[in-house]
Design a protein that fits this description.
The structure is a single chain. The chain has 80 residues and is an alpha+beta fold. The protein has one domain. It has 2 helices and 4 strands. The chain has a 4-stranded antiparallel β-sheet with strand order 1-2-3-4. Strand 1 and strand 2 form a beta hairpin.
């Protein structure tokens, strides 16, 4: 998990979820949750996938804030 702020100063949490099933390839995907509103639906970016939780964690820890914000804009644009 990784916390970051958007361009408006709101706090977000980038995290990983696991999709069940028999196929292990790309089982883990990116989820963004607004921290100030825990009841809000998390934004799922199912096209951002990893094969293992370790790889996902390493990627999130090294991902720049600019990249996280870009992914957030994409998810918000699709959700509206």
């Amino acid at each position: 998990m990784r916390e970051f702020t958007d361009v408006n100063g709101r706090e977000w949490m980038a995290m990983v979820r696991e999709e069940g099933g028999t196929d292990y390839k790309g089982r883990f995907y990116l989820v963004l949750q607004l921290m100030e509103d825990e009841e809000a639906e998390p934004l799922e970016l199912r096209e951002v996938r990893w094969n293992s939780e370790q790889t996902a964690g390493r990627t999130l820890s090294t991902m720049s804030v600019v990249e996280l914000r870009r992914r957030l804009r994409s998810a918000v644009g699709r959700a509206t």
